[in-house]
Amino acid sequence: RRTAHMVGVTALVLAVLGGFWFVNGSARSGKEREPNNEPARANPMSEEGRASGGLGERRGPKLADRDCFRLPHVGRDQMLDVQVTGLPTMELAVEVFGDKAKPLHQQAHRLRGEGQLVRRLDGARGPRVLCVTEDTAEGQVAGEALSDTYHVRATTSPRPKNLRLEREPNDTADAPPLAPGLPVLGALDGARDVDHVGLKLDGPARLDVTLRGHDRQPLRGLVLSLLDADGRTLHTRSTGDETASLAMAFVASEGLTPVTLRVSPAENAAALWRAAKLQSADYVLDIHTEPASTAIEREPNNKGAEGLVMTPGGWHAGDADAPDGAE
């Protein structure tokens, strides 16, 4: 009886331990388990920061499946990179949430089959959950990828101390103004990615902008533009195949005031990035302003007697459009 009792107890303990391993081990494997379509129901990632899943049965005619995963801990002095592999029949979108499901980041910058790459998410913002879904256009019926699997990998690295980090979403021209301070470290991580930085100029000012590569890497296939409040391009410059940096100077005046700075991919950007084996185009953006004179040129001023009286110490704006090149 005693032997039988001990065998029964041993079998029970092994069964409990086996069940615990199945539940806990499965949970820590990083494989998705439904339901996980809300941040509150996010699945844990593996201890190595990996996960996998599939966008199966849609939630509605225009609402694709969504999978959420709890991100590994990110310290305030760290930044987070997340790579999501693609699905052959879908364009993907990713969202990152903080505490209490507060939206922190969203992007859909790559094409079908290319997945998504989140670069340098600031750990000080408290990223907690990553959600993966299909990027559907307005009026598009949501898809289902029942037999395909995507993979997620999250990695952390030290946050740079002398740079600010770009914040997504910033694909539209209504980006908030950038306060004076450290340069901005950003990246175009797909052919559809466009980054905007808002400008706040109090009165006439000279604006000096420098766009350079990160860690002494050259710039490839980037376009730097200044836009006014109506979205019109006031000034633009482009990099070549390999450019160390771009410098742009502009004097803002009444009726000619840039409100947004835009970094966008050139037409040949995708080919240049593939040739250089780049997953993203990293850049550093440095912006300086100083007051300018309110005196703007008035025509006619092609002769010395018609010249504008300059204000000492102030920047002045003009356009050298005279036939003989004189102003």
Please tell me about this protein's structure.
The chain is mainly β. 10% of the residues lie in helices and 33% in strands. It has two helices and 18 strands. The protein has helices spanning 2-28, 269-275, and strands at residues 43-44, 50-53, 66-70, 78-84, 92-97, 103-107, 116-122, 129-134, 150-158, 164-165, 184-188, 195-198, 205-212, 222-227, 233-238, 245-252, 260-265, 281-291. The strands form four sheets. The protein has a five-stranded mixed sheet, with no helix packed on it. Strands 10-11-18-13-16 form a five-stranded mixed sheet, with no helix packed on it. Strands 2-9-4-7 form a four-stranded antiparallel sheet, with no helix packed on it. A hairpin with a 5-residue loop joins strand 14 (222-227) and strand 15. The radius of gyration is 27 Å and the shape is elongated. The termini are far apart.
Task: Write a brief structural summary.
By secondary structure, this protein is mainly beta. It contains 2 helices and 18 strands.
Descriptive labels:
five-stranded mixed beta sheet; 10% helix; 18 strands; 327 residues; 2 helices; mainly beta
- Overall mean pLDDT stands at 85
Distance between the termini: 111 Å
Count up the helices. 2
Radius of gyration: 27 Å
Give start-end ranges of low-pLDDT stretches.
9-26
Helix fraction by DSSP (H/I, runs of at least 4): 10-25%
Number of strands: 18
Describe the biggest sheet? 5 strands, mixed
User: Per the principal axes of the C-alpha atoms, what is the gross shape?
Assistant: elongated
Please identify the structural class as seen in this structure: mainly beta
Strand order of the largest sheet: 1-3-8-5-6
* Percent strand: 25-35%
SSE order in H/E notation?
Answer: HEEEEEEEEEEEEEEEEEHE
